[in-house]
Amino acid sequence: MKKTITALMITAAFLAGCGSDENISEAPKNNEITVVTETDAAPAATEAPVAEEPAADEPATEEPAAEEPVVEDIPEEAAAAAPEQLSETEKGSERSAGKPKAIVWLGDSLTQGSLGDEDDNLANAPYVRLSKKVSVPVEGYGFYGHNTHDIFWMYRDETQKGQEIDPDKVYIFWVGSCDWCPDEGPNANTAPVISQIDNFLAQNGGVNNYIVIGTTSRWRLGDLYVPINNDLAAHYGSHYMDCINLINRYGYSEDNTHLSQASYDAIADAVCDKLKALGYI
């Protein structure tokens, strides 16, 4: 089966550890990409020829029994590590069964899967890995170095991404890193971030299907991640997903701000499990 990865849009977000709070009045200079990964449609089945019945005075000949297919054993580790590949036929069947139109992963440089430099790891972003494991399209928008307000603005503004908020899609929010680590120093004020997310969710009749991923324990934020994540968990309940244990296990990149590839992969897998637990896929 052939897999095609079409680059559409993802953004620059999260400046090596914290973002700028300045207002954006004109289009940013960084180019963003959105990636929607799909597998090619399965070939249509060919119609089997109809066998002629033997004449009445001729004995029917028996067809030899078909041989049992040989199934190779796959090591457990390899099976667990390989992302599930789904055909377009399977994806269409899932969508017709009431699954979401698409999954949108919105955030900063962590959503990009950045290892420390802007746009340096887009092919291995966590939403790319997720797209190989689910039966609907996945759209990734990572805005390097931007706070929550500007991430949502750039996603919707017609001069930027020009995307409509669609209640038929599932939204994954991994935002706030640049709000809690601004240039003037880290803080633990969650109210502005929660307000921005809630405002987003209230648009166009209301978005009910979403996940909010907690912040990290990177060096600039220190122990302030604890009250921040407690606030997010209390406000969003079952929609909240913590990532601290996974990061503690798989670590950071060399700048101790962005994550290691193993951490991004583990978080993408955890998001997939969360989507299933919430009944979205």
What's the arrangement of secondary structure elements?
Blueprint: E1 3-7, E2 35-39, H1 76-81, H2 88-96, E3 103-107, H3 109-112, H4 126-131, E4 138-142, H5 148-156, E5 170-174, H6 177-180, H7 191-201, E6 210-213, H8 225-236, E7 240-241, H9 244-250, H10 261-277
Parallel strand pairs: 3-4, 3-5, 5-6, 6-7
Antiparallel strand pairs: 1-2
Helix pairs in contact: 9-10
Jot down its keywords.
7 strands; 11% strand; 30% helix; 281 residues; alpha/beta; five-stranded parallel beta sheet; Rossmann fold; globular; single chain
Structure description:
The chain is an alpha/beta fold. The chain has ten helices and seven strands. The strands form two sheets. Strands 4-3-5-6-7 form a five-stranded parallel beta sheet, with helices on both faces. A two-stranded antiparallel ribbon has the order 1-2. Helix 8 links the parallel strand 6 and strand 7. Helix 9 packs antiparallel against helix 10. The two termini are 22 Å apart.
Summarize the structure in short.
The protein is α/β, with parallel strands linked by helices.
